Amino acid sequence: LSTLITYNSSREAFNLWQLGVVTHDRAVIGNNVNIGSGVTIDGTNNHYDEPTIGDNTIIATGVKIIGPIVIGKNCVIGANAVVLSNIPDNCVAVGIPVKIIKTNIDVSKY
């Protein structure tokens, strides 16, 4: 079961693959972003800025993105990763805390 949400007609949609996704109202989510179940995209008490997620990014089940984090375009974030630092474009990142394990990826192969 998947849910397709479109925030407005001028923007492409992103997919929420199950329930239990928490997003902050100021988080910026790009076009064609796939978000797995149990994902949290939220801020902290110490910062006004919230997470920004680039276009064509895949966020697997259980990922936590906390604080004013920027995730680049065409990234893959592995299941249950905890993202506490920025991720550049075209990367695969996994772990707690998240580490980049692959760069210059073609996200269409994931």
Summarize this, please?
With 110 residues, the chain is an all-beta fold. It has strands at residues 3-5, 14-16, 22-23, 28-29, 34-35, 40-42, 52-53, 58-59, 64-66, 70-71, 76-77, 82-83, 91-94, 99-103.
Q: How would you describe this structure to a colleague?
A:
The structure is a single chain. The chain contains no helices and 14 strands. The chain has strands at 3-5, 14-16, 22-23, 28-29, 34-35, 40-42, 52-53, 58-59, 64-66, 70-71, 76-77, 82-83, 91-94, 99-103. Mean pLDDT is 84; it is low at 1-11. Helix content is 0%, strand content 34%. The strands form 3 sheets. A 7-stranded mixed sheet has the order 1-2-5-8-11-13-14, with no helix packed on it. It is an all-beta fold.
What topology does this entry show?
Elements: E1 3-5, E2 14-16, E3 22-23, E4 28-29, E5 34-35, E6 40-42, E7 52-53, E8 58-59, E9 64-66, E10 70-71, E11 76-77, E12 82-83, E13 91-94, E14 99-103
Parallel strand pairs: 2-5, 3-6, 4-7, 5-8, 6-9, 7-10, 8-11, 9-12, 11-13
Antiparallel strand pairs: 1-2, 13-14
Annotation keywords:
four-stranded parallel beta sheet, single chain, seven-stranded mixed beta sheet
The major pleated sheet works out as: 7 strands, mixed
Fraction of residues in H or I helices: under 10%
Q: In which order are the strands of the major sheet placed?
A: 1-2-5-8-11-13-14
Strand content: 25-35%
* Tally of alpha and pi helices: 0
Shape: globular
Q: What's the total count of β strands? A: 14
Low-confidence stretches: 1-11
